[in-house]
Amino acid sequence: MSRVERFDRLDALRGAAIVWMAAYHFGFDLNHFGLLQPRQFPNADPVWIAHRTAILSLFLFCAGFGQALALDAAQGWPRFWRRWAQVAGCALLVSIGSWLVFPRSWIAFGVLHALALMLVLARLLAPLRSGLWGLAAMALTAPLAWRHEFFDAPWLSWTGLVTRKPITEDYVPLLPWFGMLLAGLAAGQWVLARRRHWVAGALPGVLQPLAVLGRWSLSFYMVHQPVFFGLLTAWMALGARG
């Protein structure tokens, strides 16, 4: 039986994105519970927005790169759909959970919803190879070039061509973010064809925990916020009793 090729370096990069995301979310939760002083405004503060943009960009880039690896390994559609179902199912759970906690700003199209759509589109577009760079550039710049009030409707805001952001706890529209996933896919195809050793090389032992975390990124994503909220809720309750 042949040994399955491991790409620990990409897993570690994804793991780093997850750690960065967790730190961001923990700060966000501390602010939500009033434990950060002075009070922060994550949706308006340039520093908070810059962190969110960088984290999401890195995460989607890694997702696109991962699709390049899957195609390189001749992953068939049945396995793809099994993984896709996990992402889509988790997206549904996020919507339900956010509706219970934030009924007025629940998540209708967050990062997992976007990822579920992007993965299908990326799989279909992957044969374009070098042409993906142009599509990525178009996706990244589309909302800057054209927006219309027509897309402000709740059932169309997922496109990203909106004139105003919907009221929601997480909003990751197809445009411009699909551009980052396409860039990761294009970069992955190029690296695997010309510089495979960049991702197939050995990983220092100290970074192995990040690689493990990167391989379980979806599970960690689903668990970390309920854990943070539960711990902070208990902390607040104990503080009130004291």
Question: What does the model show?
Answer:
The termini are far apart. This protein has nine helices and no strands. By secondary structure, it is mainly alpha-helical. The protein has one domain. The chain is globular and about 60 Å long.
**C-alpha-based Rg, rounded:** 19 Å
Helix content: 55-70%
Low-confidence stretches: none
Domain count: 1
Order of helices and strands: HHHHHHHHH
Give the N-terminus to C-terminus distance in angstroms.
61 Å
Tell me, what's the shape? Answer: globular
How many beta strands in the DSSP annotation?
0
Number of helices: 9
- Class from helix and strand fractions: mainly alpha
For the sheet with most strands, the description reads: none
The average pLDDT value, as a whole number, equals 93
Percent of residues in beta strands?
under 5%
This entry's quaternary arrangement is single chain
Write the layout of secondary structure elements.
Elements: H1 8-32, H2 46-72, H3 77-101, H4 111-125, H5 132-145, H6 174-194, H7 197-200, H8 208-215, H9 217-241
Characterize this entry briefly:
The chain is mainly alpha-helical and 242 residues long. Helix content is 68%, strand content 0%. The termini are far apart.
Key attributes of the depicted protein:
9 helices; 242 residues; single chain; mainly alpha
